[in-house]
Amino acid sequence: MELCLRITVILTASEDTVTQSTGDVIRYEGGSVTLSCNFTTSSTNTHYLFWYIQRPNDPPKYVLRRDKYSNDTVQEYKKRFNAKLNTSSVPLAIEVVQLCDSAVYYCALKPTVTVTL
C-alpha cells in the first residue's frame, strides 16, 4: 500500500530559517523514508531542532528534539523514528513506514507546540 507523507515548512523569527523539501513523499508500507530539514541561524548558542507530526484532524504533536548535548524522542516513536543533528540539517528517518505515518511533518528551531490544560 502506498503512503503519502506531506512535508511543510516552518520559519522561525529573527534571521533563523528552516527549509524542508516541498511536496508529497510517497512510500510503500514497510519501506523507509528520510525527510529533509535544513536550517540556518544567527545564534551561536546550542541549536535545538524539533520534529512534529500532524495527522488529519489533529493538532501538531511533538515527536523528537535534537541538540548538541542530548536527544529526546517520545516513547511511541523511539523504535522507528530517528534524527541526527548535523551542522546545518537534521533529517528525520522513518523505518518500516506504516499507514499511521501518513501526516504532515514539521521541523522547527524552537518549540512550536504548546499544551493547554
Describe this structure in words.
By secondary structure, the protein is mainly β. Helix content is 0%, strand content 40%. The chain has no helices and 11 strands. β9 and β10 (92-94) form a beta hairpin. The protein is globular and about 45 Å long. This is Ig-like domain-containing protein. Keywords: Adaptive immunity, Immunity, Immunoglobulin domain, Receptor, Signal, T cell receptor. One of its GO terms (biological process) is adaptive immune response.
Short description:
With 117 residues, the protein is an all-beta fold.
| Parts with pLDDT < 50 across at least 5 consecutive residues | 9-13
Please state roughly what percent of the residues sit in beta strands, choosing from under 5%, 5-15%, 15-25%, 25-35%, 35-45% or over 45%: 35-45%
Q: What is the average of the pLDDT values?
A: 84
As laid out across the biggest beta sheet, the strand order is: 3-1-11-6-7-8
Structural class: mainly beta
- Provide the succession of SSEs: EEEEEEEEEEE
Total helix count?
0
Tell me about the largest β-sheet: 6 strands, mixed
- In total, the number of strands is 11
Write down the overall geometry: globular
Distance between the termini: 38 Å
Whole-angstrom Rg: 14 Å
What helical percentage do the residues reach? under 10%
